[in-house]
């Protein structure tokens, strides 16, 4: 049974910590025009991370200014107004990620139908889209099916080759069913998520982001938490707009969508329904296939088929492949302005 994911935490009087400091910083930024106030009659806040009476008064003034419920509590709607530019980016990326997930599900269904054709000895279809999906399946999940049409001259040969052996087809069908289930769960998560309501997605500032434990943040700075009650939260800090922390490269909307889809892949099943099914094998830890990881990069082709089915980036990149009609691991299209290679910045000519 699927869980309806809950909202993020509220901030109120007497709370302390980096999240409160972020709110104080944003309130000051919103109210400041040089040395003058824009909408408040109270002093600028000391950004000390303590939700005291002055912060309470400022929050109430902010809520009055923007037509929110004046309760002095920083809930989802107040946070959405404070983090509006960040929320706009996440909304757009989320919409694209939903479309990618739907297209990926359709591709997997076409592959399942193709397996049934092979199982019952039917004629191979001559569909170039199906052929592209077969290649993407081999590249990102190491699930090999016979290619329905020959490769065009000069086209890179995908890894491995498929077999029409009945046992191989049964194994491929089982794996496709699992992959489809993950994409179906990701679609459910994306449908439930709302950064403006604090469901699944929530905005956080730089102070809260910097307070996260090392290892929880990926290259985009995005983090995910699974709560004790089985609900999930994916946190989007200001660094969501930067490809790698510390580098001044603005992420394109497609790179943002890629991050959204990747993070949702990790949390397709709440902890109370069993272990998390999708990890980050391709980031190198634990080592796999008997080979050590490359520092900071993907050991993508070292994955076994079983590991690839449990690797978040495999799902993200398969979806991109069937959407764009090309493998995007080694660079995106030049029209995408900024490109990256396996999580690091690169170029594509």
Describe what this molecule looks like in 3D.
The chain has ten helices and seven strands. With 349 residues, it is mainly alpha-helical. It folds into two domains: 75 residues, Orthogonal Bundle (Muramoyl-pentapeptide Carboxypeptidase, domain 1), CATH 1.10.101; 267 residues, 3-Layer(aba) Sandwich (Collagenase (Catalytic Domain)), CATH 3.40.390. The strands form three sheets. It has a three-stranded mixed sheet with strand order 3-5-4. Strand 4 and strand 5 form a beta hairpin. Helix 4 runs antiparallel to helix 6, helix 4 crosses helix 10 and helix 5 runs antiparallel to helix 10. The chain is elongated and about 75 Å long.
Tally the helices: what do you get? 10
Return the domain count: 2
Assign the CATH superfamily of the largest domain.
Answer: Collagenase (Catalytic Domain)
Summarize model confidence as the mean pLDDT: 77
Query: Structural class given helices, strands, pairing?
Result: mainly alpha
CATH class of the largest domain: Alpha Beta
Share in β-strands: 5-15%
Counting DSSP E segments of at least 2 residues, the number of strands comes to 7
Report how far apart the termini are.
Answer: 46 Å
């Amino acid at each position: 049974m699927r869980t309806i994911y809950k909202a993020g935490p509220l901030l109120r009087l007497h709370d302390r910590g980096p999240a409160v400091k972020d709110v104080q910083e944003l309130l000051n930024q919103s109210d400041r025009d040089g040395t003058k106030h824009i909408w408040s009659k109270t002093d600028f806040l000391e950004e000390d991370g303590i939700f005291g009476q002055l912060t309470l008064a400022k929050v109430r003034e902010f809520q009055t200014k923007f037509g929110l419920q004046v309760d002095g509590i920083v809930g989802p709607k107040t946070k959405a107004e404070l983090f509006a530019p960040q929320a706009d980016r996440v909304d757009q990326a989320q919409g694209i990620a939903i479309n990618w997930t739907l297209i990926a599900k359709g591709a997997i269904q076409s592959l399942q139908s193709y397996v049934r054709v092979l199982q019952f000895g039917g004629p191979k279809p001559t569909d170039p889209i199906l052929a592209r999906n077969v290649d993407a399946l081999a590249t990102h999940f190491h699930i090999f099916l016979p290619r329905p049409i020959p490769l065009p001259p000069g086209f890179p040969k995908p890894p491995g080759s498929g077999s029409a052996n009945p046992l191989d087809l049964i194994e491929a069908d089982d794996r496709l069913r699992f992959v489809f289930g993950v994409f179906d769960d990701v679609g459910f998560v994306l449908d439930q998520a709302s950064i403006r309501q604090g469901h699944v997605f929530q905005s956080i500032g730089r102070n809260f982001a910097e307070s996260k434990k090392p290892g929880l943040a990926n290259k985009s700075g995005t983090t995910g938490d699974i709560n004790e009650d089985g609900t999930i939260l994916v946190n989007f800090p200001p660094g969501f707009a930067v490809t790698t922390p510390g580098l001044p490269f603005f992420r394109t909307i497609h790179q943002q969508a890629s991050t959204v889809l990747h993070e949702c892949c990790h949390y397709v099943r709440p902890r109370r329904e069993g272990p998390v099914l999708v990890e980050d094998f391709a980031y190198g830890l634990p080592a796999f296939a008997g080979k050590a990881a490359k520092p900071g990069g993907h050991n993508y082709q070292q994955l076994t088929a079983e590991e690839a089915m449990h690797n978040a980036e495999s799902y993200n990149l398969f979806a991109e492949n069937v959407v764009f009609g090309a493998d995007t691991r080694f660079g995106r299209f030049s029209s995408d302005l900024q490109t990256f290679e396996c999580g690091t910045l690169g170029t594509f000519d």
